[in-house]
Design brief:
single chain, 110 residues, alpha+beta, two-stranded antiparallel sheet, two-stranded antiparallel ribbon, 4 strands
Length: 110
Amino acid sequence: MAKKRFLTLYNSMKIKLFEHTFIFKTKKKTCPQCNGKGFIDTDIGKDGCDLCFNTGIFINAFKNSIDGMNYGNLFFFKKYLTAQDFEIAEKINCSNRKKNKEQGHLTKLD
């Protein structure tokens, strides 16, 4: 029992972002799209990762997906978050998009 509890605690990661603490079900440190390389291999060469902005870092990829600027895809993180945390992340992303639109920030076209 103690060993199972240790594994559960070890396999989680917490970050505080936008006044909410997100608890991830993983200790993953690399971007889920480029696997930490910062680029993606394509048919014509290498292309920078849009999810993490070429850093290859998991937390940066999540922040870029939730900031409302339409960079990255929040659904990459669905399997790493609880259902409640993912729902909160979607609400934050939606409200950030509205704020950015009202302030006149340029956003990536859908």
